[in-house]
């Protein structure tokens, strides 16, 4: 199978269309998948060819047949933590504490979760009359093991200090007392099976409060088939925050404030990507919007290094950086190679940083050739990302077809493979 030539400037949608009403659709409640299928890779797969404007219907276990030989798959290796805690006020009232981001002693979830010492977290609190300095505990009577001291609180947002009596790590404490933080639109409590089914086979780095759901369809069997076809795999990390569920409420998309998330890439993984993209015909398929936002952020950081030199504070990507044509004119190989050289110059094995990048129509997405992704909520930043890849009106054709053909939507739903250019 031969590749189509890789253009220097990938597909964009032309003029910006920022009216949110252009990026919504009617999603019936019965089309939202409440539970996963028994077999991960038995989900349906809608295959959309943007260049040809065609749609095919397959099963996810067929994906190895659809990706080019010698191509690369980029996945997110984040792992969901048991971030939802049910605690009690001194009066006995129940309070839900939803951990979002660690603050101290480090913003790095890996460090905090491996620690046996108290840690401070930004969180969401559900419950009435929760006040500053209140101590929330895991049990009403007897000696409490887990305590959450409310350091500050504004409406439903707070900062708490977690303390525990036993000597385990925070990760172990959360496994004992916490539950899987399922998306709110599932309208159900987590079940025992969700502990395994709401993690991807790639999950290694603890820190997310939501799964990178495109990866939920992959199985060892699928990965073996991809390996036999010569499809290489590279991993990035984006710890998914609650902002992923935040709807775009502004009528003008440009007024939306994008959430910031922690991202990282190991030097060994970036070396594989640099080597792969050295060839003009290189093909990269990213698994999920989180992998795409991470890889695109690494690209934008590299483009900035090419443009401005190595005198930088590090990887920190702004909301509108993908619209900066002085960055997106840099080839992806040159950008990735610049990040690699910067990491070597700074003796860095893993590059950690943050991104608030918003990929929306008008953004020249440079890092990938195809995207594996589920079907997203109306009016969400994730749907805007899909529209950026597909253009108008093809994204509507994809979603209209999926609705008409009975596809299951959102986190536990079916999948799609969006190919930005055709295979020759």
UniProtKB/TrEMBL annotation:
SUPFAM superfamilies: QueA-like. The keyword Cell membrane does not apply. Pfam families: Queuosine_synth. It comes from the Bacteria. InterPro entries: QueA, QueA_dom1, QueA_dom2, QueA_sf. It catalyses: 7-aminomethyl-7-carbaguanosine(34) in tRNA + S-adenosyl-L-methionine = epoxyqueuosine(34) in tRNA + adenine + L-methionine + 2 H(+). GO terms for molecular function: S-adenosylmethionine:tRNA ribosyltransferase-isomerase activity. Transmembrane segments: none annotated. It is an enzyme of class 2 (transferase). The keyword Cytoplasm applies. Keywords: Cytoplasm, Queuosine biosynthesis, S-adenosyl-L-methionine, Transferase. PANTHER family: S-ADENOSYLMETHIONINE:TRNA RIBOSYLTRANSFERASE-ISOMERASE. This is S-adenosylmethionine:tRNA ribosyltransferase-isomerase. It comes from Candidatus Kapaibacterium thiocyanatum.
């Amino acid at each position: 199978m031969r590749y189509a030539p890789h253009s220097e400037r990938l597909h964009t949608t032309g003029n910006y269309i920022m009216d949110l009403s252009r990026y919504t659709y009617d999603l019936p409640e019965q089309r939202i998948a409440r539970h996963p299928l028994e077999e991960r890779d038995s989900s349906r797969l809608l295959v959309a060819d943007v260049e040809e404007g065609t749609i095919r219907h397959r099963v996810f276990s067929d994906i190895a047949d659809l990706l080019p030989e010698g191509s690369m798959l980029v996945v997110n290796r984040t792992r969901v933590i048991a971030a939802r805690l049910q605690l009690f006020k001194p009066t006995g009232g129940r309070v839900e504490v939803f951990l979002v981001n660690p603050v101290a002693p480090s913003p790095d979830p890996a460090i905090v979760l491996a620690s046996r010492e108290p840690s401070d977290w930004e969180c969401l609190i559900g419950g009435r009359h929760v006040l500053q300095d209140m101590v929330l505990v895991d049990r009403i009577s007897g000696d409490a093991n887990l305590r959450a001291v409310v350091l500050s609180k504004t409406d439903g947002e707070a900062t708490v200090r977690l303390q525990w009596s036993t000597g385990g790590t925070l990760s172990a404490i959360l496994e004992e007392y916490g539950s899987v933080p399922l998306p709110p639109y599932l309208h159900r409590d987590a079940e025992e099976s969700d502990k395994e089914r709401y993690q991807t086979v790639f999950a290694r780095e603890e820190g997310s409060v939501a799964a990178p759901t495109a990866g939920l369809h992959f199985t060892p069997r699928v990965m073996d088939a991809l390996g036999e076809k010569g499809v290489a795999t590279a991993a990035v990390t984006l710890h998914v925050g609650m902002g992923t569920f935040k709807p775009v409420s502004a009528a003008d998309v440009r007024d939306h404030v994008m959430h910031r998330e922690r991202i990282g890439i190991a030097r060994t993984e970036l070396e594989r990507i640099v080597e792969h993209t050295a060839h003009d015909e290189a093909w990269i398929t990213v698994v999920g919007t989180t992998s795409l936002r991470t890889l695109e952020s690494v690209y934008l950081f590299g483009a900035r290094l090419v443009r401005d030199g190595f005198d930088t504070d590090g990887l920190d990507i702004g909301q509108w950086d993908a619209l900066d044509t002085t960055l997106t004119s840099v080839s992806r190989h040159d950008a990735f190679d610049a990040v690699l050289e910067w990491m070597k110059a700074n003796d860095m094995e893993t590059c950690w940083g943050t991104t608030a990048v918003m990929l929306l129509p008008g953004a020249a997405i440079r890092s990938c050739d195809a995207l594996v992704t589920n079907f997203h909520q109306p009016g969400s930043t994730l749907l805007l990302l899909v529209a950026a890849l597909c253009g108008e009106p093809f994204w509507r054709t994809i979603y209209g077809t999926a609705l008409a053909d009975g596809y299951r939507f959102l986190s536990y739903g079916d999948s799609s493979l969006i190919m930005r250019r055709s295979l020759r």
